[in-house]
Design brief:
With 195 residues, this protein is of the alpha/beta class. Helices cover 21% and strands 24% of the residues. The protein is built from five helices and ten strands. The protein has helices spanning 10-18, 47-55, 83-86, 120-129, 149-156, and strands at 2-4, 23-25, 32-36, 64-66, 93-98, 111-115, 133-137, 162-165, 176-181, 184-189. A ten-stranded mixed beta sheet has the order 1-8-2-3-7-4-6-5-9-10, with helices on both faces. It is globular and about 45 Å long. The termini are far apart.
């Protein structure tokens, strides 16, 4: 199933995500596989497992989580993000932080990578889902990221529950990835935001 990227399709896409579906959505960088994050541990599905199966991804490699507002990161971590870093949100910056004690996110991994994307349409989708969305680039593990809508549709239409059409993303850079440390941060991947 495909939808155009438009406000009138947001409710249908949110419904698919809330029912455990995997969506291919445009971001402010490349297209990404997304699925809702189970914050309660009570959902009858694990969308991260579904995404990994589609990609053929190493089970140990964590997925980025997208949030709708910068301040939402503090629902999941007690680590103070430096002002010069958090002011880059919304935008193509991913920040790895330690997870709060007792958070269901910490059951899988003690640290989580968060991004507040610069795409307002996507932030609206996340907000209406009421939980972060997993995100990872649209490609088979070990293969190049797909940059055109036609390539994505041909490769994944049978496996993704919905693909959202926002045209081609040729030459788009991935997000910049940083790890917060005790005394600052380390750049793990220099991407669309130059730090």
């Amino acid at each position: 199933m495909t939808f155009s990227k438009s406000d009138e399709n947001i409710d249908s896409i949110v419904e698919i995500l809330k029912s455990g579906g995997v969506a291919v959505v445009p971001t402010d960088t490349v297209y990404g596989f997304s699925g809702i994050v189970d914050l309660t541990g009570n959902l009858a599905f694990n969308t991260d497992d579904k995404i990994r199966k589609i990609k053929g991804r190493d089970e140990k490699k964590p997925l980025i989580q997208l949030i709708s507002k910068p301040e939402e990161v503090y629902l999941f971590t007690d680590k103070k993000i430096p002002e010069n870093i958090i002011k880059l949100w919304p935008g193509p910056l991913t920040v790895i932080v330690p997870v709060k004690d007792g958070s269901p996110l910490g059951e899988k991994c003690p640290t989580v990578a968060f991004r507040c994307p610069g795409d307002e349409w996507l932030r609206t989708v996340i907000e209406r889902c009421g939980a972060p969305l997993y995100s990872t680039s649209v490609n088979r593990s070990g293969s190049p990221v797909l940059e055109t809508f036609d390539e994505i549709k041909a490769e994944f239409e049978e496996e993704a529950d919905v693909i959202v059409d926002d045209g081609d993303k040729k030459g788009s850079l991935p997000s910049t990835l940083i790890l917060l440390e005790e005394d600052g941060f380390k750049i793990l991947r220099q991407g669309a935001v130059k730090i």
